[in-house]
Design a protein that fits this description.
With 341 residues, this protein is an alpha/beta fold. It has one domain: Alkaline Phosphatase, subunit A. Helix content is 27%, strand content 19%. The strands form three sheets. Strands 1, 2, 5, 6, 7, 8, 11, 12 and 13 form a nine-stranded mixed beta sheet that branches. Strands 3-4 form a two-stranded antiparallel sheet. A two-stranded antiparallel ribbon has the order 9-10. β9 and β10 form a beta hairpin. The radius of gyration is 19 Å and the shape is globular.
Length: 341
Amino acid sequence: MMAPVEYDEDMTRVLFIVIDQLAGHWAEGVTVAENMPPVNVWGYHKKGLIPTFSSLIENGVFAFAWNRGTCDTPHGMKYLATGGYNVEPFWKSLKNQSYYERNPSDPVGLLEFAKSSNPEGITSACFTTNNWAAPGYFYTAGDIHALTSYYPDEAMWRDLALPYLRKTKNWNLVLVYFPVNDIVSNCPSYAFWNPHVRSSKHSYIQFLDGLLGEVVEYLKSGGLWDHTYLILASDHGYHAACSAAREVGKMIGVNSPNWCCDHLPPYDCEVWDYANDRSKGEYSGCARRVLSIVSGGALDKSFRGKIIGESEIIDIAPTIADVLGIPYKCEGKSLLKKIEQ
């Protein structure tokens, strides 16, 4: 039997979890069924439906964050990885295959910079799917695990990331990517009864909440919680109850606000009045509403329970650099620095 790892209790750590297509917030007053908002973290938190997310919000920093660039995964992931919008090249489709034209002058992602700037002080790892393990994205010179697309979230955590964390004494910068929420689309946002966790956004966010509960339990039971920042983010949201969703719905015979339909452009959509089949003239921009939470026991008590009314996806990378003391320069600004203003 392997001896238990003796962790360095004084080491500051960041466990960074990226959840694909998880809307962080929504336009106020929008409902899809039975007084339910489209699935989003802030709305479900206010309704008491996601206790783990709620605990992290109440004991951390929640930011009403936006993706102000292109709201697809190749762009959103690079915004998260680099803290900037002007960070070409991005993954693209070339003859129906994914293609990434990496050049020596391209931006260096935070994880790669952190390891190269302090190889003895940073013990890093990345658990993601193949495209986002590339240089310029979440590549690190530490442990890197590039898996097939839409690898199950629970397997990503239980079978790969968790065993690594348990056996690695001094990890202090680890990314874990949960991709599956991105394919829980073209389905109901809310369903009272769900035969499978992937049958609706409602069911899957509750599954994710339970999975995050396992993450928190590992940190607390292992004595790591008080020295760890747990940072959650997403690359983009999705369309529902808006003008963009209505246009897609017309093509396939769907006329309901309770239907989520991915995150295709236009991203600047409006809230849709389905009863009268017209725009309400109110901005939705639901695909732009990303998730940003900074929590964990390492977060100073003065920051806990704070709400940032306006932030951007590019603020995540500098936040991680800030708490670990990494001299990483980028366009975004640390969320904690925004609170201090």
